[in-house]
Specification:
The chain has about 270 residues and is an alpha/beta fold. Helices cover about 25% and strands about 25% of the residues. It has one domain: Spore Coat Polysaccharide Biosynthesis Protein SpsA, Chain A (Alpha-Beta Complex), CATH 3.90.550.10. Strands 1, 4, 7, 8, 10, 13, 14 and 15 form an eight-stranded mixed β-sheet that branches. The longest helix has 14 residues.
Amino acid sequence: MKVLILAGGRGTRLAEETSSRPKPMVEIGGRPILWHLMNFYASYGFKEFLVACGYKGEMIKEYFKNIAVHESDFFVDLRDGSLDVIHGSRLDWRVGLVDTGMDTMTGGRLRRLRGLIGDETCMATYGDGLSDVNLSALLQFHRTHGKLATVTAVRPPARFGGLRIVGEQVEEFTEKPQAEGGWINGGYFVFEPGVFDYLQGDDTILEREPLERLAREGQLMAFRHPGFFQPMDTVRERDLLDNLWSAGTAPWHRWNQPASSAGQAGHP
């Protein structure tokens, strides 16, 4: 099953980083957030990716073109440039890197990948958010309900301190979600081929007409994930993710764990 990753936006809210590189190449613990996302999918056995590139997409292409060499140990013969690999890369991913246009919208980027998917179920997500959602449970849920699309519903992460005010006195200050009790689109989609019929052109915004129409027609189901979810839209959020990784407490990190043993199961 292929995993489609939207990686073409300009990331203007993280301009401190994205003026020189695409947002999915911003590093967490010395590796691009895109690598972390793909490694998470791979830990569940999903190792075939299609990356929808756009803004500064050549940097993403260069990274994956060279990653096998960078992750290997080898001797190089300087007479002809040949390599004798001692220890090869442990990565067994297959990565497709596709230029989907500089200004193409999210739905349009997915539409441009349709010919590379065929008539198969696929997964899709954004290239700038990390979670510990149980991907096996997500896929099982999708297959059970029989609809065209599943979106992972998550709690909005805390961005501002919450205030409980009585009169003019602050009774409580807590760092909690802005919309406590609500759910938002966290990405981590599962799509049937029929979803692509809802994508009309490059200016199609996935989160508007396509998903709204799927919802109206009863073809969009929500997989609730109450666990960890964190987008990387600001420097503060980048630092939060980086600190989690540095502390060894990154919830999305699943080295050598069996696919069935980690993550939140979620429920419909």
